Amino acid sequence: MVRRREKLPEVGWLVIGTVDKVFEYGAYLKLDEYNNMPAFLPWSELSSKWVRNIRDIVKEGQKVVVKVIRVDRRKGHVDVSLKRVSEGERRRKILEWKRAQKADKILEIVAKKIGKTIDDAYSEVGWKLEDVYGEIYKGFEEATIKGAEVLRKAGVPNEWIEPLLNELKKHIEVKKLKIQYVLSVRSLSGDGVHRVKKLLCELYPKEEDKEVKVRIYTAGPPRYILEVVSTNFKKAEALSNSLLKRAERLAKKLNVEFAYQRVK
Questions:
Q1: Is residue 50 packed enough to be buried (19+ CB in 10 Å), middle (13-18) or exposed (0-12)?
Q2: Per the structure, how many domains does the chain have?
Q3: E-state strands within the chain
Q4: Are residues 106 and 77 in the same domain?
Q5: In this structure, is residue 8 part of a structural domain?
Q6: Which CB contacts under 8 angstroms, 24+ apart, belong to 47-52?
Q7: Which distant-in-sequence residues (6+ apart) come within 8 Å of 196 by Cβ?
Q8: Which of 6, 24, 111, 193 could bridge to 121 as Cys pair (CB 3.0-4.6 Å)?
């Protein structure tokens, strides 16, 4: 079950609800992220269009993304709206929800393996990662890429680190961005082959970076492919630009013709 630290949501927040009971005047939901707390969805907040039958919009058991419009903290009562949720907001919330579900499952598995409760998992791991990365799953993605140091920096106890990393390898596949350039490299000098090879070899980064991989291969001389793959878009773009500038400077020194074009 996906959890939130807050006992009650705030006005304006998007929440996931399961339709519990439907009446002529509205519907009652159970808020999945708040221990199935009841929330009321008034008829007037169903749709911006005229609704003939409320069951044309919501049915028992249906999961919906709704926006919190009123919170009575003294009574613990929440009112929500379906019509005030845009399509973009709905998609983003569902993605966030699915990521939270995956994170919850991983925490549950690891907690069971090391003899801990799910409450321990959230207090010792989950909330600490959320504090640093904004969401638990994002912390897991970072740990998958960069390793144990991500967990240590967030304050995760050592007993969790190795079991977590082992489990993350099974469940998390981090999406990678690929940037490609077609390079045209040629030299009419007697040792032109050597000069071209030297330029291409110099394009590889001086230091290894776990987040970025660089590959250069031939597409049939004088055309070559520069490929930069990373989970970090900004870093991949910055490195690509840096490598191309380095190639231009070196091409002048080596008296090598050099041009490039990005692959769309």
A1: exposed
A2: 3
A3: 14-23, 26-31, 37-42, 63-72, 77-81, 177-186, 212-218, 223-230, 257-262
A4: no
A5: no
A6: 47/82, 47/83, 48/83
A7: 185, 186, 187, 221, 222, 256
A8: 111
Q: What pLDDT band is residue 261 in, cutting at 50, 70 and 90?
A: very high
**pLDDT(208) > 90:** no
CATH number at residue 54: 2.40.50.140
Q: In terms of domains, do 167 and 185 share one?
A: no
What six digits make up the tokens of 132? 């640093």
pLDDT digits over 29-86, tens only?
999 999 999 999 999 999 988 888 999 899 999 999 999 999 999 888 999 999 999 9
Is the pTM here over 0.90, yes or no?
no
Contact between 67 and 12 under an 8 Å Cβ cutoff? The reply is yes
- For residue 162, is pLDDT > 90? yes
**Where is the domain boundary, 136, 171, 206?**
171
Nearest to 110 by CA among 162, 70, 72, 75: 162
Is 5 within a domain? no
Per-residue tokens: 120? 């321990």
Host domain of residue 71: 14-84
224 pLDDT higher than 80: yes
